[in-house]
Amino acid sequence: MLELRHFQVLRAIAREGSLAGAARVLRYTQPTVTYHLATLESHFGAPLFHRSSRGAALTEVGEALLPHAEAVLERVRLAEQEVRGMVRRGTATLRVGTFPTAGALLLPPAVRSLHRQGVHVTLREGELPTLLAGLRSRELHLALVFSQPGDRLDLEEDFIVHPLLEDPLMLVLPADHPQAHRESVPLTALREDGWIMGTTDWDPCDRLLSWACAQEGFEPVRVMRTDDYGVLQGFVAAGLGVALVPGLGLGSPRDDIVVRPIDGRALARQIGVAVLRTTTVGSAGQLLAELRKEAARIQAEHRGPGLTPPVVAPR
């Protein structure tokens, strides 16, 4: 029968590179480490390490087993942390992830409502890849996520994404830009401009911009990368370039820039909540309900007459 200490020994040998090193960090004797490793290898019927005078290196079977062992140990650590916290506070902790713009506007009212109901919430802010990794490792119960409409997030079927709202993407121009006087600006009028874009090539907003520009027969020229919308606004105001920014990321725009919709096509990113399908934390449902209320309020505030549905780019 497999035991947690077998996995602890496997992980320690892999990290330390030797049985002696594993014995040292685990505070076992070396014969004890050897015994647990032999038990584990007997269970699987294959050697897990190549051993030599230089130490121990994982075999192919060992490399296949190690991530599962680490996942088991991490889940046990999280279970201990959650249950001990529940015993100490009398309530379970809801672990929530968020990306910055949602963390600033969409999430706080919902969390405040849960706090008033006695629910303990911990928050982790990060970019999308960090949040998805936290969900897959079960370090997060749920997370606010975003994607280009029509895209699928890189999450297995264990998760469901509940849509909240479509966040329109708006053009940000210097106040003295030749197109600043327009109520809406066609992308074709910006084909000669430089663009301030996100720091990673997978950014859904940038991919949607590139797709939309391609429909007009040109490719946006990137002149700067940043994920800080305050920095972005400053360099747009300085005339370095123009940008496409989600509505939730605009905050209070500077006086020396203008914000305009794109003429002829409404582009947006989809914001949703990714939740483990089998979660038993009841407060996850409470938070989802509060987020839906806040999303409906934001959507109503930003919905104007004649607003066309957002364009969905092909994947």
Automatic annotation (TrEMBL):
Annotated family: Belongs to the LysR transcriptional regulatory family.
Gene3D superfamilies assigned: Periplasmic binding protein-like II (3.40.190.10), Winged helix-like DNA-binding domain superfamily/Winged helix DNA-binding domain (1.10.10.10)
Protein name per Swiss-Prot or TrEMBL: LysR family transcriptional regulator
Keywords per UniProt: DNA-binding, Transcription, Transcription regulation
Domain of life: Bacteria
Domain HTH lysR-type: 2-59
InterPro entries hit by this protein: LysR_HTH_N, LysR_subst-bd, WH-like_DNA-bd_sf, WH_DNA-bd_sf
Pfam families in the cross-refs: HTH_1, LysR_substrate
Matches recorded under CDD domains: PBP2_LTTR_like_6 (cd08423)
